[in-house]
Amino acid sequence: MMHIIVCMKVTPKSEQVRLDPNTKTIIREGVENEINPADKNALEAALQLKDKHGCKVTVLGMGPPVWEPYMKLAVSMGADDAILVSDKAFAGADTLATSRTLATAIKKIGEYHLILCGEESSDAGTGHVPPSIAEFLNIPQITFVNHIEIIDGRIRARRVLEGAYEVLECTPPVLLSIEYGCNTPRFPDFRRKRWVDREFKLKVWSIKDLELNEEEVGLKGSRSIVEELREMGLGERARQKITGTEDEIAAQILNIIRPYIKK
Amino acid sequence: MNLEYKNVWVFLERRREEIIESSLEVLGKARELADKYGDKVAGVLMGAGNLDKLAETAITYGADIVYTIQDDVLQDYSTIPYSEALSRMIIRYKPNIILYPATRNGRDLAGRVSAKLNLGLSANTVWLDIVGDGVLLAGVPGFGGGIMAVTKCLTKPQMATVRPGVFPKPQPNPTRTGRIERIDVGKLPEPQVKTIERVFYTVEDISKAEAIVIAGMGIRENIEAVKKLAEKLNWAFGATRPLSDEGLVPRDIFVGATGKTVRPKIALIVGASGAAHFISGVAGAEKIISINIDPEAPIHSYSDYSIVGDAYKIIPKLLENLEAEAK
Amino acid sequence: MIKAKLVDAELIEKLAQLTSGAADYCYQCGTCTGSCPFNLLNPQTINPRKIVRSAQLGLIYDDGNLWYCSTCGLCEAKCPWSIKITEVVRGYRLLATEKRKLPQKFEEILWMIYEDGTAFPGSSIERAAWTEGLSIKDASKQKVEVLLYIGCAVSFDKRLHKIARSLANVLSTAGVDFGILGKEEKCCGDVVYNIGEEAFLEELAVQNIERFNKTGAEAIITISPHSAHMFKKVYPRYGLKIPAFHYIEFLHDLIEKEKIKMDKAVDDEVTVHDPCYLGRYLKIYEEPRKILSSIPGLKIVEMNEAKENAVCCGSGGGRHFLDIHGDRLSHYRIMQAAETGAKTLVAPCPFCIQNFEDSVKTKKLSLNIKDVIELVNQSLSRSA
Lengths: 263, 327, 384
Fold this sequence. Notes:
Chain A has a single domain (about 5-215), classed as Rossmann fold. In chain A, about 30% of the residues lie in helices and about 30% in strands. Chain A has six helices and 15 strands. In chain A, the strands form three sheets. In chain A, strands 11-10-9-12-8-1-6-7-13 form a nine-stranded mixed sheet, sandwiched between helices. Chain A has a two-stranded antiparallel sheet with strand order 2-5. In chain A, strands 3-4 form a two-stranded antiparallel ribbon. A seven-stranded parallel sheet of chain B has the order 7-11-6-1-4-5-12, sandwiched between helices. Chain B has a five-stranded parallel sheet with strand order 15-14-16-17-18. In chain B, strands 8-9-10 form a three-stranded antiparallel sheet. The termini of chain B are far apart. The longest helix of chain B is centred in the N-terminal third of the chain and has 17 residues, at about 20-35. The mean pLDDT of chain B is about 90. Chain B folds into two domains: about 10-180, HUPs (Rossmann fold, 3-Layer(aba) Sandwich); about 205-325, TPP-binding domain (Rossmann fold, 3-Layer(aba) Sandwich), CATH 3.40.50.1220. Chain C has 16 helices and nine strands. A five-stranded parallel sheet of chain C has the order 1-3-2-4-5. Chain C has a four-stranded parallel sheet with strand order 7-6-8-9, with helices on both faces. In chain C, α3 crosses α5 and α14 (about 330-340) packs across α15 (about 350-360). The radius of gyration of chain C is 21 Å and the shape is globular. The mean pLDDT of chain C is about 95. Chains in contact: A-B, A-C, B-C. Chains A and B meet through α3, α4, β9, β10 and β11 of A and α3, α4, β7, β9 and β10 of B.
């Protein structure tokens, strides 16, 4: 039976995030969290493979204890197990430190055939964690996948590029990053959720459990830092109002765009 | 200047027999950065056949040196051979900065190299600057494009992936000179991922458009009229993300933080409310005209000309006027 | 050749349990299919008779049009046995949802309700945006006598903000001690109920009831008949003890007790649409008319298809969220309204108003669409 590990991140809802103009830090108060949307697609892809081939699905995340209900939600959706890697030492990690920590956790989990990650997260949106995890695990990777098949134990994936697509094949273990929106994540089974909320015990691993030292993780393990945050200067605009009847407005628009009309 | 690490490298991604536009944009920016602190620009080009012609093109676009690596295994992009080749180059030559286009392949590669060599990496940058002796500062957009983090790498070479469409493609200078160095990096590993099929299709890339009409949810019942307008004006046609999510327009023409970034001379935006993630995709336009029936829609403050009106009435009128003028 | 279908005795039993034996007495006259308004709109035909027959025989009903039904209940009103046909529809939907065989759009809506507390796209932090400039008690922070439940549609649709504001004004003028949950307000779950996602509905209802209880309110008023139906008829199963009303009932009471006076003339000719969930479900037909009659200067004309025979606007039962293109029932209904010669169509339901506003734009009909409270507010005497 194939074992699929899905890496999951919990992110703040993008539309609620604001920058404090004085302290230039993110205002976290009152901002709600959600499972990173692309990771939901990754989990759904894993669950579809589970439905078809009977795989075991484990969800793995690196984050603070507030992530627990989201990890459990993943189990309600159908994952078999969930592990949260959580420690103060992991805080402030850049993508390198995050990937190293997750890769170490994956090694600790043991045997796996497929690692699925969302293509990028809705907050930082780097998309670098999946390739970095694959490198730390020394396994091949296929990024931006929108369709997966398992044929005779081999993984066949459809990879989407700008203006092209590739159908690629690889023997496990391999890491795939899943394209956002490539499937409809199933709504959790709330009867299963009742059981999960009451009975399911989330495994929580600390830095000691991973046998890592502080220099390898979190802020200390990072190789890039944020110097400052800025509100995106989206440019000052003229803001000239055009008014009148619809005819007049159309005529004025035409005047403005006329020099740019191409024959 | 710290002599141990030098030059600004650009990963020149190929698509079949051409260097992709995004790599040329990055080359242009690399030139600017290198000139700021007095360094050279080197392109890294990989492939199976002879790469000299492409290397010469890269020189006309601003490279002083182009390193070419020729190996059958590098014919098409594949993570393992490409990342191995690039890593060996980095260890040997110690560049100060490496920039990659933040295309899918570029990000696939950069993330792998970052872990291979334990190097800090700034992602999807929309702003780059040099301070002091070649220290790179990179602007990384986050949270749907509303906030930008200015980041710095703590290791060398400093690496960043650059969002396509943000920096202009430079004008090629056919009289520029430079040198091409073919490098032997040793035997490269075979890709473990086998290609069963690869299909290219020509995509109307709106990010290169000089003029564009963008449709938003506010005109969803008559997207046809907006398309017709774009056709009549001979402008590109784009859309906002919700229209694409609803399946009303194809996915590759939506403008926004997670879609295309456009830098046209003029953009006519019809029925879009102006959410931050959309604006960040169109902020590079020289002139923006917007029509939105809601006087409080944020789009109005991001426009040079703003119209509070009913697009369902105005667009047909505009089409009428255009047709009348054509006669 | 006719293929015989397998009859499933277990399924008969299960559906009978889920629907309290709703299908039992049907003798297949077909009046329901004949009167279903959606059959006016090809190709969205619904066959209520077949659905009930399938339940009687224990046949699986997996036709896509199971989801087109707006649960308007016109079939039930016409049925000679008053069979609860919409219950059978919900029963089949519950079984389909259990097997995750529901339209993709509904799966997305369920996620939105779970994660953002709304069935309409909108950020929960903007839920009280309609209150701008007004000072309304925050029931999540202080006790109130009456909890005003706004609902998702009204919270996030600018056109519908006017309704909430009118109602808030009328209640204040009447001296009612009321408050709203604001950002803390979550979807009532009408869509969840109609999709048949029972386990999620239970969690949603229990959490809502806890929120309501904390406010100390002695009554809940809703703007949407769908919410009113949920709180009156469905939530008691999950422990809701606070009496719930649609604002029409409450308003009618305020007028009878002379807590508000309407003395400004409103010169208009209106016709009344009876929303399915206010009329056929809650049997509130007379009160909207009585309220409108108390507005000086207002003339009321009735449509032929009124009260129990009102034609659905097309949105109940979760249908509002299915992107079904083409002809809409609300186009049909506004024509009926225009035929009366009225200048304004009055509909005390946010879904109806959204549909009718869209339809008058599409059909380029000059008909005003208003909620009852907007007219009341217009006529309100400013002196207490």
